[in-house]
Amino acid sequence: MPGVTLVSASRYRDTRPIGGPPGQGVFLNGACLLETDLAPHDVLGMLAAVENTLHRERGERWGPRTVDLDLLLYDEVVLNTESLTLPHPRMVTRRFVLEPCVEIAPDLVHPLAACTLERLLDSISSQHPYVTVVGVPGSGAPEVASAIADATLARLVQAPPAYARIKSLQSPDSSMDHLPWQQVAEACAKPLLATRGTADPHGTVSDYWLHTVRLAAADTLRSEPLGKFTSFFAGLMAKTMPPQVAILLVASPEVLEERIASHGRHDSSRNAVSDDLMLASAGWAAYGRQSGAAVCGVSGNSVAGLLRLQDQLTAALRHPDPLRHPDPVDSMVPRAVVTIDAADLGRAVQEAVAAVEAMA
Asked: Which of 14, 82, 121, 321 has minimal CB crowding within 10 Å?
C-alpha cells in the first residue's frame, strides 16, 4: 500500500475470548510494526478499508468477527478524539496484545505508561497480581472491585474505616499536624502489606488507592508537616504491595450530582454504591471550597470537591519523566492504567472485569 512499509510481523497466537457472549471459539491474534507517512487518522482509515475488503461484520461487542484491526500506538503520540484514541485505551492489560507486540518491538515506548512494552508486559505478569480500583466516592469503586474479585477469585480489600477520616482532616485546623495523617495512612496500608499479598494465589483487588491519602494530605498540610508526612509515607509504601494495574473510574459532574441526590432520596437502602456515597454526600465539601469551583445543583461543594480529587487522581496515575521529576514513591504507581467511564455501572463492571481477565 502506498506510504506504508511492513517492518516486522509477529507469529499468530490462539487466545481465549475475553468478554462478549459465551460459547465463542478461540481467537487468532498477532501484531505488526509499520513505517508510514500517513497521519494517525489516515492509518485508521486504511485499517478500516482492509476490514471492509475482508467483509468484517460488526455485531455484538467483543463477539466473534472475521477480522478486527486496531491501531495500538503511533510513535509516542497521545490522542483522544471521537474516532481515535492513542495509545489504544485497553491494550495495557491485554496479554494477547502485549505478547505479540513485545515479540517484534520490545523497546517501543508506551507514552502514558512511560515505559517499554516489554516492561509493561512484565508488570501484568506478577505471580500475585494486585489491581487497585481508583475512583472518587460515588464513582462505584466498591462495586467494581467486588465484581473483579468475584470473577477472578482474588482477595478483596475494602477501604478500612480510617479511610473515611480523610474528610475530617480536610480542614485548616489540621494543616499543621501530620500525625493524624500518618495514622490514616498506616491503617490503610495494613491490609496491603507485601507479606499478605503472597498468600493470595489469585491476587488482590482493592477498592481504594493508598496514594489518595497522600494526595489529600498534600492538599491540606503546610510545608514542614507535609515533608514529615511524605518521608513517613515513602517508608510505608516500601512495605506494601505495589499495584500492577489501576482501574480508573471517571464520572462526570452530572453523574456524581445525580448519584448524590439519589442517595439522599433513598438513604435507607444499603449497598456498595450507597456506602461509597456517604463520603460523597458529606465528606468532600472542603475540597470544593478549596478549588473555588461552583457546581450547580445538589451538594455543589461536594461535587466540585470530588471533581478536584478526580483530576488529582488522574494526574497522579500519569507517569512523569523520572529524570526530570525524581520521586521514589512514583515507582509504586502502576504502569498499566485502564480508564473507564463510570456513568453506566453495569458497563463499567463489564469493562473492568474484562480488562483484568485479559491479564491471564
From this structure: 82
